[in-house]
Amino acid sequence: MSSVSPLLQADPAGAVQRAPGARLEARSLRKSYRTSEGAEVLALEDASLQAAAGEFVAVIGPSGCGKSTLFHILAGLEDPEAGQVLIDGSVVEQRLGACAFMPQRDGLLPWRRTIDNVTVGLSLAGVPRAEAHERAGPLLERFGLGGFERAWPWQLSGGMRHRAAFLRTALLGRPAMLLDEPFGALDGITRADLQHWLLEVWEQVGSTVLLITHDVAEAVYLADRVYVFSPRPGRVAATLSIELPRPRTLEMLGTQEFAAQEARLREALREHSVR
Amino acid sequence: MSATTTTLVSDAPAQSLEQAPPARRPSTLRWRPHHVWPPALVLLGVVVLWEVLTSTLHVSTTVLPGPALVLEATWEDRANLWPAIWTTTKEAVLGVALATVVAVALAVAIDWSRTVRRSFYPLMVTSQTLPIIVLAPLVVIWFGFGTAPKIGLVALFTFFPVAVGTVQGLASADPDAMALLRTMGASRAQLLLRVRAPSAVPQMFTGLKVGVTYAYVSAIFAEYVGAEQGLGVYMQASKNAFRTELVFGAILVTTLLTLALFVGVALLERLAMPWRRPSQSEVDW
Q1: What is the ipTM of this complex?
Q2: Does pTM top 0.95 for this prediction?
């Protein structure tokens, strides 16, 4: 139970309790790969970014600009060749397990029922099954998975699978969440639902969120700040603050202010995507 | 929680209920008429033809007894057949069990340690080309005429498909799922237990289904080489007594027993993987 903070305990109504976010910082990360032909490809070069405690930060950039590599380094799956990752101001030696990571694919384990999939992090931390179920039960209802606790992953719709994957991420109770294009594979309607719902959860939980996206409107709608990445080697080309009030609502999507922010971001992207 | 979320959230399951197929049980062993009738009719045709030919052409029953005679004689001799069935079944089932335990253990070791993989896996794969039947006399020389050498020979036959299937199954684990659990702080042992092992179950069973089809045959062969009891001994004794109809009876019994063993493994497979969606298991049949 040591590595799971009790931040995300459900109250009887199934709400998620507030968790203070962590300050997340990447300093001058560098990472290269060797292709099968032996050529060296520089994925990241001098990539730096930071997210304040509780901030919602989006990372946007052309395909193959090293965004996913950045997340893999932050999550501890890969080590940078140069640079550092700091959480709350100090270098973290063991990054695996420090942040909650949500990959592009939902990654639900086919042999676990919904309730066991969302509590997989708790079970890895040694929380007894009954206790984990007790903790997750009310949240399943809250995350729109009520009645599907005992369903196998193949019995869930795409949107439900993503909600389960997100609940699994949130239940880890980490002070920072890394979301790697969580809604990329979904249809437009489901996607809009999930974006709105992610905002609500984040506003309740209060943890720091770093989100990779390809979608300009998604970045504007969700984030406080947006980092624009340059094409390979990936580095931060521009930073934009999104000047829209919180809480964000679906009605904002049609406003001129929203369109103006979107245009700014599009312009920044265009400017920095030229190779 | 705001009203908006409540609506969103309550909409979702309704919408996905249509998408989600009804939660029916995997139907590995459900009989479907269009799957059963054609082969059954062919089989019936062969049996009828066989009966008609043997009785009209007056073939000697020592050469080719008719099916009716086979069934009748076998039934009459059941008192001698039962102990033979029991002995051979014991050898076959224990051999399969032994092979599965050893194969899975070795597969996990191969998966876990690069050294073990490099030193054992190539040998394991190449040793599959070895005709195990030639080992039968040796096994009898080493372990005598009791049950042990038969179990050993059955295990040798069953071992390879199970071991290779399990190694491949363990390696087939989804790398994304592995990465995800690593970011949650999972240890290597936890990854093996929570991701790799469940991923290996389907291919382990595929190997086991291949393996068990050899189980009775290899037990009987081991008995030919030297045994006091069993279907192999029964067949040889019947042959020596020119009771060809009893040899046929023993062959029929062996076929049915092999089929039963296969169906037993298929049932076990279904029990072991309740998570499989029905369409996946239907492909097997």
Answers
A1: 0.86
A2: no
